[in-house]
Amino acid sequence: MFESLTEKLEKSLQILKGQGKITEINVAETLKDVRRALIDADVNYKVAKQFVDTVKTKALGQNVLTALKPKELMLKIVHDELTSLMGGETAPINLSGNPTVILMSGLQGSGKTTLSGKLARKLKSEKGKRPLLVACDVYRPAAIDQLKVLGEQIEVPVYSEEGNNNPVEIAKNAIAYAKNNHLDLVIVDTAGRLAVDEQMMNEIEAIKNAVKPQETLFVVDSMTGQDAVNTAKSFNDRLDFDGVVLTKLDGDTRGGAALTIRNVVNKPIKFVGTGEKLDAIDQFHPDRMAARILGQGDIMTLVEKAQNIINEDEAKQLQRKISKDQFNFDDFLAQIQQIKKMGNIKDLASMIPGVGKAIKDIDIDDNAFKGIEAIIRSMTLAERQNPSIINGSRRQRIARGSGTSLQEVNRLLTQFEQTRKMLKQASQFKSNPMKMMREMRRHR
Questions:
Q1: CA 176, CA 170: separation in Å to the nearest integer?
Q2: Looking at the domain 100-289, which fold is it?
Q3: Of 171, 175, 151, which Cα lies nearest the Cα of 161?
Q4: Which long-range contacts (CB under 8 A, 24 or more apart) does 66-72 make?
Q5: Where do the structural domains in the chain lie, given as residue ranges?
Q6: Which CATH superfamily is domain 304-442 in?
Q7: pLDDT tens digits for 27-67?
Q8: Cβ 375 vs Cβ 408: under 8 Å
């Protein structure tokens, strides 16, 4: 995401590399390129101008510390202003009310229905909520069917009324149904149109007045740039929504909507959709997004994703196996499955500082582990649990069974053995810090 903007901002800040101090001249030259990069990213011209004016004032007002190079200082100022531009602080979702009612709004094709399912799944797994999805798009039968399919996938009930074309009635009846069935979260998926029109606005306004939601979210395709911002303004003028959800952010190389929308409607971005999978939804953190735009990675989000899928008891059990040198291919396969649950492999890698730029032109397939999994699944139970018994004839059989070459099997076995040794060594160092320090001194 934001690949094009990241690249241009990096080039802009290179002007200050090697400079002894910040001056009016080198700041003006740098910020001229920054403004151009923002406008190319489809950021509103007035927002871009205001942004660079603020950065310039702060940069020239700084007493540059001898320990801080001009480029590093400018990077910090730009990071802070990008964070401020996108809202400054993380905006929480309001989960008060019994049940909590969340109303989804937006144009057709923005991803409202899919986002409703993603949000239900997220709040169910992370907040322990018992959701109900409500199908209020009475004009598009496919929307109701789509919501039902999503509901089945995430094991969440879907409320719909066949033959009833009154979305206000459906929404009110759904809330009564939720109360009677002890469901504490109601997510109302509404109809959209290809463009803003009076009928749609009147309808969603009527639904909002009838159900009085704790949260009204505006869902918009981030790849539409300034069109997304203009649509957000039209909806906000009528609905006074509580927050924005940007979908398809993983495909947005420019970033104009994310950088402009808060400034125009004065409402926070609350969530972002980052892929097609049902777990591809993240809470929006302005400071973390600013770091990613500047190519600095996002370790905090990576850690949170890992924590969400790692079972504490399983982690302790794995640690014990590693310390006893009992880590085997079953454990290796289980770790691969957990990594796959975290999301798109390339997106995860780009969260590591410095890695995003290195892999931007590399195509990392989500099926990157497919060959490894095939090899492991072609092993017998005894071979997976005790890899040392895998001799030459067993390797040939595994290669045939997995549809891979003998070289690939040999490579995996070598890599596995290296990984096992590294994990055992790390485990020993963790339990004996003095031993680690002695090793570090020995290798200096």
A1: 10
A2: Rossmann fold (3.40.50)
A3: 171
A4: 69/16, 69/19, 70/16, 70/19, 70/20, 70/21, 70/22, 70/26, 71/13, 71/14, 71/16, 71/17, 71/19
A5: 3-85, 100-289, 304-442
A6: Signal recognition particle, SRP54 subunit, M-domain (1.10.260.30)
A7: 777 888 888 888 887 787 888 888 888 888 887 766 544 44
A8: yes
110, 192 in Cβ contact below 8 A? yes
Partnered with residue 190 across adjacent β-strands are: 136
What is the model's pTM? 0.68
Order of all β-strands in the sheet with 269-273: 158-159, 131-136, 185-190, 100-105, 215-221, 243-247, 269-273, 281-283
Decide if 139 contacts 204 (C-beta within 8 A).
no
The arrangement of secondary structure in 3-85, i.e. its CATH architecture, is Up-down Bundle (1.20)
Measured distance CA(166)–CA(409) in Å, rounded: 61
CA distance 52 to 74: 11
Mean pLDDT, residues 294-301 taken together: 63
Listed residue (318, 281, 321) closest to 301, CA to CA: 281
